[in-house]
Specification:
The complex is a heterodimer of chains A (about 240) and B (about 220). Chain A is an alpha/beta fold and about 240 residues long. Chain A contains seven helices and eleven strands. Chain A starts with 8 loop residues before the first helix and ends in a 6-residue tail after the last helix. Chain B has one domain: Glutaconate Coenzyme A-transferase, CATH 3.40.1080. Classes of the chains: A alpha/beta (about 240), B alpha/beta (about 220).
């Protein structure tokens, strides 16, 4: 019998290893799996390559992971955000490397990685500094750049509801990178506000089918980054 | 009476209002952060426009009433928004398929510089020590059918933002169709800036003096 539910966030992230590539869902605070990230900070894995659209805010969630010195490389599209003060220090000191990728290319790289497609061509960034060094090919008279698919060892995601098979539905714009990252990681871990029995989720509305998910963990009342930042919380 | 500072050209809201006149009924539109966001408030009544925000929502509505927002319902600027009836949520690959696949009709963006061939620079000044951040700007201009720019005609220091060729790092090549500034509406046509409209009280010499490339003036009528 398949039951992907684990008891708590500590158990969910226990096997994340030093040097791992970890995709973390979320666009800004929407979809950020704060409880899983905090469990990862407590767990201690370091020298991580993290894939996320941003670099977190304040000193909680992803920003706290960076502040703790655990991230040696960020792959993201928009590291400069309001209240994003931790990353600039780590970047300027050389502790954390940055691979800057246009947002749509980042999304497609993750989608391709999860779909078994090693590379693809995109018109985005042609003629710009972010296109330098990329292979160029012309199709129908227009130039395109080759981008590589992206995969990861782990994905940490936030859903609204999951079931024991790992099927997931998301909440509003918190969906963002979640369904893509779920496909691209060897071990996808989803925290959801509720984990329900098999059959309770309507198969017509499932966004991430359970085959992409290794573990689900219930976090009934997840924290919101903006609330924590406004309260001046610094994790741990 | 206190002395009032002379206002030359359009205000931010008036620039947005002018741009809004060119947003057609039934359009799917993506608005950038800053002045472009204001455009939604000025689309003439009777036109139905559907707003896309690249983080995963089609049918974005106005900001929520104070205290009624949801931290998981935000726009690309990470501000809380609402979803209109008929809205749809989707993941990032679908969102950028809408963008890159040419399904959006219009995007409106800000600019650091626009060249007379329609090159846009709007993501980085290239300053040493700056944290480079691009977001979805390069995808939007590579894929959306019509690209409008709203910008002040010059920088705060009076330097032209409409130039022969951009000196800031490019966002994309030959992508801008029309520019709305405080002084004029200008089209990019065959590698030149063509004046389409002058703001009230502004003459073409005044605009030319503040432009880093030769303008094709309004045709005499």
């Amino acid at each position: 019998m398949i039951n992907k539910k684990v008891a708590n966030v500590e158990e969910a992230v226990a096997d994340v290893f030093d040097g791992a590539t970890v995709m973390i869902g979320g666009f800004g605070e929407a979809g950020s799996p704060i409880e899983l990230i905090h469990a990862l900070i407590d767990q201690g894995a370091t020298d991580l390559t993290v894939v996320n659209n941003n670099t977190g805010s304040g000193e909680v969630g992803l920003a706290a992971l960076i502040k703790a010195g655990r991230v040696s490389k960020m792959i993201c599209s928009y590291p400069r955000s309001t209240n994003s003060t931790v990353f600039p220090d780590k970047y300027r000191s050389g502790h954390t490397e940055l691979e800057l990728v246009p947002q749509g290319t980042l999304a497609e790289r993750i989608r391709a990685g999860g779909a078994g497609i090693p590379a693809f061509y995109t018109p985005t960034a042609v003629g710009t500094p972010l296109g330098e060094g990329m292979e160029v090919r012309t199709f129908d008279g227009r130039q395109y750049l080759m981008a590589y698919g992206l995969t990861a060892d782990f994905a940490l995601l936030k859903g609204k509801t999951a079931d024991y098979h790992g099927n997931v539905v998301y909440n509003k714009t918190a969906r963002n990178f979640g369904p893509l990252m779920a496909t691209a990681a060897k071990v996808t871990i989803v925290q959801a506000a509720s984990v329900v029995s098999i059959g309770e989720l309507d198969p017509e509305v499932i966004v991430t089918p359970g085959i992409f998910v290794k573990r689900v963990v219930a976090v009934p009342d997840p924290q919101h980054e903006s609330t924590l930042v406004a309260a001046g919380v610094s994790y741990p | 009476m206190t002395e009032q500072k002379e206002i030359v050209g359009l205000t931010r809201d008036q620039m947005a209002q002018r741009c809004a006149l060119d947003i057609h009924d039934g359009s799917y539109v993506n608005l950038g952060i800053g002045i472009p966001e204001l455009v939604a408030g000025y689309v003439p009544e009777g036109r139905e426009v559907i707003y896309h925000t690249e983080n995963g929502l089609l049918g974005m509505g106005q900001p929520p009433e104070p205290g009624k927002g949801n931290p998981e319902l935000i726009n690309a600027g990470k501000k809380q928004v609402t979803a209109n009836p008929g809205a749809a949520y989707f993941h990032h690959a679908d969102s950028f398929a809408m963008i890159r696949g040419g399904h959006l009709d219009v995007c409106v963006l800000g600019a650091l510089q626009v060249s007379q061939t329609g090159d846009l620079a709007n993501w980085s000044t290239g300053a040493p020590g700056a944290i480079p951040s691009v977001g979805g700007a390069m995808d939007l201009i590579a894929g959306v059918k019509t690209v409008y720019v709203i910008t002040q005609h010059t920088t705060r220091d009076g330097e032209p933002k409409l130039v022969e060729s951009c000196t800031f790092p490019l966002t994309g090549l030959g992508v801008v169709h029309r520019i709305y500034t405080d002084l004029a509406v200008i089209d990019v046509v065959d590698g030149q800036f063509k004046v389409v409209e002058l703001s009230p009280g502004i003459d073409v010499d005044y605009v030319q003096q503040r432009t880093g490339a030769t303008l094709i003036p309004l045709a005499d009528t």
